[in-house]
Write a structure and sequence with these properties.
12 strands, 3-stranded antiparallel sheet, 344 residues, alpha/beta
């Protein structure tokens, strides 16, 4: 952030001029290296965040019908967007209660399969792989907003891995990025050139064209680009995704062990294999008011450990993103111990 005001900063520069385009080019190259992408995959980006990309995927990637995995609020939101589209058949929904996982399976009339790598609302992590027995022409879309830059994934069997950069990638929101396969790009070209009306902001093929020129359709927030590029470069300097995945697993492990050892806390996700390394959700015993606990923490400068509001559980939710120091999480557990021992 300090670098934004230094001499030579791109702040205030037109996004179509070389200084900003160099930043965009660096982001695309660094994400390609970070995920060791196949040579024919591309990184695209545009304004609006991952929420906009749900609508973009609805109009630019799904031809007739999608199948979705729903296991929390964010997977539900994309499924709802698909259901509202008047030009698509209702999605085939594979659903699990919060804290568990449901992945879509092969359905004969489905051309697109979608779920989230990490369900941010619950702290459930999902595999990134092509479902068994699906049609060769079907696309696989994975929402990676809270996983990108913190959980390893192989892109070679899926078609779109999309995310906003405000979590592990240490930037601001308002931007979407997508790692796209040739099949996804071909599908978007075909769908957006058909009789279906596609607004320019939701036209993935147009976004790809602009991305190839290292720019976006309209003016992006330059600070978001600068911070994103700096974080991608930092992750590569530390050792790339192998390092990031090891760090988040270690840091989240501190919290999961603490939650298992403390008699007043329990990991919300019961299956250890499904526990997210980047979003840790912990149930608090009913004898403790978790809202009061979070409020007292906030009064002392410990921010944003509140649970996802729509779950309505007596719990806390803690980020263990790549940039978060393990020592800070160790300190947090000590603070939580004090608060639990000295509760009203």
């Amino acid at each position: 952030m300090a670098s934004l005001s230094e001499p030579g900063s791109v702040m205030g520069t037109s996004h179509r001029q070389p200084p900003v385009r160099h930043v965009v080019a660096a982001i695309r190259e660094e994400l390609t290296e970070l995920y060791n992408l196949p040579t024919d995959y591309e990184v695209a980006l545009g304004n609006g965040g991952a929420t906009l990309f749900w609508d973009m995927a609805t109009v630019s990637l799904v031809e007739k019908r999608a199948a979705t995995g729903v296991y929390g609020e964010f997977t539900r939101k994309f499924s709802s967007a698909l259901q509202r589209a008047p030009f698509l058949a209702d999605p085939a929904v594979f659903q699990a209660e919060p804290g568990k996982l449901a992945l879509p399976k092969a359905v004969s009339d489905v051309d697109t399969y979608a779920w989230a790598h990490n369900e941010t609302s619950t702290g459930v992590v999902a595999p990134v792989r092509r479902p068994n027995d699906i049609d060769d022409n079907s696309l696989v879309l994975v929402d990676a907003t809270s996983a990108a830059g913190g959980v390893a994934a192989d892109m070679s069997t899926i078609d779109a891995y999309y995310f906003s950069p405000q979590k592990n990638l240490s930037s601001d929101g308002g931007l979407w990025l997508a790692i796209l396969s040739p099949a996804a790009i071909e599908r978007s070209n075909r769908v957006t050139s058909s009789a279906r009306w596609v607004p320019q902001m939701l036209d993935l093929s147009l976004a790809v064209t602009n991305s190839r020129a290292d720019q976006t359709l309209n003016t992006p927030a330059l600070a978001t680009l600068v911070m994103l590029e700096a974080q991608c470069r930092w992750l590569l300097d530390q050792g790339g995704m192998a390092w990031a995945a090891s760090r988040t697993a270690s840091t989240s492990g501190i919290l999961y062990r603490w939650a298992e050892d403390n008699p007043l806390t329990t990991p919300f996700v019961a299956d250890p294999a499904l526990r997210s390394p980047v979003v840790v959700t912990i149930d608090i015993d009913e004898s403790v008011d978790a809202a009061r606990l979070c409020a007292r923490a906030r009064d002392n400068g410990i921010l944003d450990i509140e649970p996802y509001r729509k779950l309505g559980r007596n719990q806390i939710r803690i980020a263990t993103f790549s940039s978060i120091e393990p020592s800070d999480v160790e300190a947090l557990t000590a603070c939580l111990d004090w608060l639990l021992e000295n509760r009203d």
